[in-house]
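Ops channel
N.P.: pipeline sanity check, posting one input/output pair.
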């Protein structure tokens, strides 16, 4: 179990090192190395999916507001029917793009959907102005450039898509200017220069905003990974403090804590067993400590295989094992203890090519009536002593008669 936890701790160490390297890196590159970029897209997906519907609704209201102001104050011949058609298409676009705002949607699919949505909105405004019946002037064209900057500043498209959006929008803008010979050449040049003068700083600001956002994410990720690592290390230390290093089962400290928990309950009918390997000192002296250690490990395995999932097996020290049987009354616990004793007695323990039979004695004590673990263990220890006095390889309790 311990190596498995250690591998879990180390899995995010390379990612943390990459994140720290990226924080120190200078330059204009916005993408992270592959693993970190994948983690970034997954982490921001939920926040992005939460904010995009709000931005889409704000954008829709803004574009509809532009149309209303245009019809009220700019266009001498208001075209409300055409405006309603355009607004209906925009509302339909908001509805159609909603499924792409979910966190489970792939990063580029979601961003491409929002690009298409806002691209359609901006182009609709431009075409709406381009198709007005009266000769076109520079003022409304300046007015129609505003939605582009809204998209760049508030929608926060990934920088490559922001460049694509501006290239298409600027190209459409230039095509509209060429399509209207009534506009003077100096006016066209002024308008293009004006739009570009706003576009370039806005693109630079979008780049810096995304870079700052990514760096903030890196700082947060680094802190989060540090926190996860500390929590995992604490879990390993806690696990080690409750685990017997030889057998891999629980230790006396863990058993004491669980016993205290049951002692504090008023209506418990749980039972505690102490299992002791008979004549283990003689076994160690005869076969040596390495074989004795292996014997402890195999006895622990044999006992664990016969227990329920919620039972607790612990090594109390030396050749003694403790078994906690939650919500199991004394009568049934005695049957379990007998089954454990018989299982160990039948276990074929190999020493070289020989089969050596091992036996255990078991002491049984009910937990009800005791207020602390030491008294429970003392009662089970007395029951174990009766089993030893009665000849070993048996289950001991108050019912067992001992011949002096």
């Amino acid at each position: 179990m311990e190596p498995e936890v250690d591998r879990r701790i180390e899995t995010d160490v390379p990612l943390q090192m990459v994140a720290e390297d990226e924080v120190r890196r200078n330059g204009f590159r916005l993408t992270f190395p592959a693993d970190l970029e994948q983690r970034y897209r997954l982490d921001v997906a939920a926040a992005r999916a939460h904010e995009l519907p709000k931005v889409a609704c704000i954008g829709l209201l803004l574009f509809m507001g532009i149309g209303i102001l245009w019809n009220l104050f700019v266009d001498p011949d208001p075209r409300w029917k055409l405006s309603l058609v355009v607004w209906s298409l925009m509302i339909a676009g908001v509805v159609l793009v909603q499924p792409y705002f979910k966190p489970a949607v792939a990063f580029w699919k979601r961003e491409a959907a929002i690009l298409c949505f806002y691209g359609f909105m901006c182009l609709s405004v431009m075409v709406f102005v381009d198709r007005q019946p009266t000769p076109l002037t520079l003022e409304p064209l300046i007015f129609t450039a505003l939605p582009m900057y809204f998209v760049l500043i508030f929608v926060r498209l990934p920088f490559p898509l922001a460049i694509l959006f501006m290239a298409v929008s600027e190209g459409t803008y230039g095509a509209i200017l060429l399509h209207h010979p009534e506009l003077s050449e100096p006016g066209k040049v002024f308008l293009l220069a004006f739009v570009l003068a706003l576009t370039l700083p806005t693109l630079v600001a979008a780049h810096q905003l995304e870079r700052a956002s990514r760096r903030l994410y890196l700082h947060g990720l680094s802190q989060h990974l540090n926190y996860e690592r500390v929590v995992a290390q604490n879990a390993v230390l806690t696990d080690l403090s409750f685990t017997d290093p030889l057998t891999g089962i629980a230790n006396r400290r863990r058993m004491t804590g669980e016993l205290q928990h049951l002692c504090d309950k008023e209506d418990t009918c749980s039972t505690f067993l102490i299992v002791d390997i008979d004549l283990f000192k003689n076994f160690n002296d005869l076969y040596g400590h390495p074989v004795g250690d292996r014997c402890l490990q195999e006895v622990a395995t044999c006992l664990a295989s016969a227990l329920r999932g919620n039972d607790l097996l612990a090594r109390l020290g030396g050749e003694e094992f403790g078994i906690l049987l939650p919500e199991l009354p004394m009568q049934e616990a005695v049957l379990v203890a007998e089954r454990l004793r018989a299982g160990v007695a039948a276990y074929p323990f190999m020493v070289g090519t020989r089969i050596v039979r091992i036996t255990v004695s078991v002491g049984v004590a009910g937990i009800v009536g005791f207020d602390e673990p030491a008294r429970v263990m003392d009662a089970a220890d007395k029951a174990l002593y009766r089993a030893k006095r009665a000849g070993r390889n048996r289950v001991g309790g108050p019912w067992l008669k001992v011949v002096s």
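N.P.: looks fine end to end. The radius of gyration is 39 Å.
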